[in-house]
Amino acid sequence: MQFDNSEIVLRPPQPDEGSAIHQLVANSPPLDLNSVYSYYLLCSHFADTCVVAEWQGQIVGFISAYRPPAQGQQLFVWQVVVDSDLRGRGIAWRMLHHLLRRLDGAVMEVQATVNPSNTVSRGLFQRLATEQGSLMQESVFLSADAFAPASEHESEILLSVPLAHKIQEKQNANI
Fold it and tell me: Cis (ω within 30 of 0) for the bond into 149?
């Protein structure tokens, strides 16, 4: 697969892309798969806080996020997914930056829950904290016991990254 990072188009999702995003997540275990309907809702009701990465007409990445009603200056990142063939190329980082630039200073903190074994996602948010010159705070959001006995789901650790300054546009497409 010949890949050029500069060919990635980052944009809000379209309402009719829920099924394609559902398939992308389904192909990305161990990510939790939500219903197709939930992805349609994200693509329509929350398009302003979600981002799609498109390459050669295919959706190859997605960030679902929303602003909790009681904490309007927070952005909660629900899922980050990149096609398995394109991981390790900075697409997740570009999507996160794109989303924060699009929100243009309206967000003062980014939060996400991450399983302890998900070192890649943890690294994404640690990189954001480092770039911002802030400390990433961690606390247990849901213990593994909350999922029992239905599954052997790991605990969900809440990561909080205060944003110290505005996210700047990067000139290099391979951030």
Answer: yes
